[in-house]
Specification:
It catalyses: chorismate = isochorismate. 27% of the residues lie in helices and 35% in strands. By secondary structure, it is an alpha+beta fold. It has one domain: 4-Layer Sandwich (Anthranilate synthase). Strand 17 and strand 18 form a beta hairpin. Helix 2 crosses helix 7. The chain starts with a helix and ends with a helix. The structure holds ligand ISJ. The ligand C=C(O[C@@H]1C=C(C(=O)O)C=C[C@H]1O)C(=O)O binds next to strand 6, strand 10 and strand 18.
Length: 359
C-alpha cells in the first residue's frame, strides 16, 4: 500500500476514535500498523496471544493488546531520508524550563543519592514530566516527522480511546525473540552528540551501564541455554550518545518462556534501578507523579500454534503522552553514588530535545 494511502487510513481510524498502533522498527523503512475494528479494551496477562502490546511501568495501569484477530494489519514503505541529526550547539539553558521543575528534580536526585549512601540500593532511575502546549490533531504529522528524523529508533504512535495517545522514538530494545533465539541490550550512560562518535566515558557512566549488563546476564541465566555479550560501545540516539552492550543467545525450550523473560527483565536497571524492588519502591514513593506507560514496553507479539513465539518489544523511552491541548514529555536518568544533581537535570533537559524537535 502507498504510504499516503496508509496515513489516510490511520487518520480515518483516529476520526472514528478507534484504537491503533503504527510503528517503524529501527533501521527499516517499513511502516506497519494495526487498526482495531472496535474500541474494546483487550488486556494481556499471559502473553499467549498475538498483536501489538502496550505495557506500563508499574501495574497501576493496564497492559493492553491490539489483537491481530480483532484488527486489520497494513504495511507500507517510506523513502529513506537518511537525515543525520547535526550537532546543534544549544545550551540547555537556552531551553526554557520552569525553575521550579529544575529545583524539584535536583531535590529528587539528592534524595536518590542519599538513599544510595544509606545502602538502600546501588542505582535508581529518576524521572519527571514536562508539559508543552500542543494540539492533538497534529499527532499523526508528528509521527511522520519522528520517522524522518530517527532512522535508528523504534518510532511509534499508539492510541486507545479508553487509555490515551502516546508517541515516541525509543533507542532501547527490551527483547527480541524468534523461536529459540533471543536478543536484548544493556543501554545506559548519556552524553550529547557533538559530531563525533569517538568519545570517552566517565567512570560513573561505565559503572551504571555495567550494572545493567550484569543484571541482564544474571537474571536471564535460568531461562537460557546459551548467552553471549558484546563489548560495550557508543551508540547514537538522535542528538545523544549512550553506552550499549548487545546480549544474544538461545532460550530453553518452554512455551511459557516469553512471559518469564519479560517478567525477569522488566523493568531493567536502565529504567528502574538495582536491586529492582528497592529502586521501584523508591520511585513510586518519591517521584511524585505517575509514569503511566513511560518506561513500560511495547511492540509486536506473535504466538504460533505450536507455542513458539516471535516478538519485538521495546522500552518506552523518548516518548510523550498527547492530551487534547498539550504534550507531556517524560524523561529520566540513572542515579548512582557519583551523580551530580545539576548534571542529571541537564541530562533530562537534553533528553526532552528528542521530542521538542518534532513538536
Ligand atoms: C530513562 C531514560 O533513558 C535511560 C537512561 C539512560 C541514562 O541514565 O543514561 C540512558 C538510556 C536509557 O536507558 C530516558 O530516556 O528517559
Amino acid at each position: 500500500m502507498d504510504i499516503s494511502e496508509l496515513y489516510l487510513k490511520i487518520q480515518s481510524q483516529l476520526d472514528q476514535q478507534l484504537p491503533l498502533a503504527v510503528y517503524k522498527k529501527p533501521g527499516t523503512n517499513e511502516v506497519n500498523c494495526f487498526l482495531q475494528n472496535d474500541d474494546y479494551l483487550h488486556e494481556v496477562s499471559s502473553y499467549d496471544s498475538s498483536g501489538f502490546v502496550f505495557a506500563p511501568f508499574s501495574n497501576s495501569e493496564k497492559t493492553v493488546i491490539i489483537p491481530d484477530t480483532e484488527s486489520s494489519f497494513f504495511t507500507s514503505i517510506v523513502p529513506f531520508t537518511a537525515k543525520d541529526l547535526k550537532y546543534v550547539s544549544k545550551n540547555s539553558s537556552d531551553v526554557f524550563v520552569e525553575d521550579k521543575e529544575r529545583k524539584a528534580h535536583i531535590s529528587l536526585v539528592n534524595s536518590g543519592i542519599q538513599a544510595i549512601e544509606n545502602s538502600t540500593f546501588r542505582k535508581v532511575v529518576l524521572s519527571r514530566k514536562e508539559q508543552i502546549p500542543f494540539s492533538q490533531s497534529n499527532a499523526l504529522e508528528v509521527f511522520q516527522r519522528l520517522v524522518d528524523l530517527y532512522a535508528n529508533a523504534f518510532v511509534y504512535f499508539w492510541y486507545h480511546p479508553k487509555i490515551g495517545m502516546w508517541l515516541g522514538a525509543t533507542p532501547e530494545t527490551l527483547l527480541h525473540i524468534d523461536g529459540d533465539n533471543f536478543s536484548t541490550m544493556s543501554l545506559a550512560g548519556t552524553q550529547p552528540y557533538k559530531g563525533s562518535m569517538d568519545v570517552s566515558w566517565e567512570a560513573k557512566e561505565i559503572e551504571e551501564q555495567a550494572m545493567v549488563t550484569e543484571f541482564v546476564l544474571k537474571e536471564l541465566a535460568d531461562n537460557v541455554n546459551t548467552i553471549r555479550r558484546s563489548e560495550s560501545y557508543t551508540h547514537k540516539a538522535g542528538t545523544l550518545l549512550h553506552l550499549k552492550t548487545d546480549i544474544t543467545g538461545t532460550l530453553k525450550s518452554n512455551p511459557q518462556s516469553i512471559k518469564n523473560i519479560i517478567e525477569v527483565l522488566h523493568p531493567t536497571p536502565a529504567v528502574c534501578g538495582l536491586p529492582k524492588e528497592e529502586a521501584r519502591s523508591f520511585i513510586l514513593e518519591n517521584e511524585g507523579y505517575d509514569r503511566k506507560y513511560y518506561t513500560g514496553f511495547l511492540g509486536e507479539l506473535h504466538r504460533f500454534n505450536d507455542g513458539r513465539s516471535s516478538s519485538s518489544l521495546f522500552v518506552n523511552l523518548r516518548c510523550m503522552e498527547i492530551c487534547k491541548d498539550q504534550a507531556l514529555l517524560y524523561v529520566g536518568g540513572g542515579i548512582t553514588k557519583d551523580s551530580i544533581p545539576e548534571k542529571e537535570w541537564e541530562e533530562t533537559v537534553k533528553k526532552t530535545e528528542t521530542m521538542k524537535r518534532v513538536l
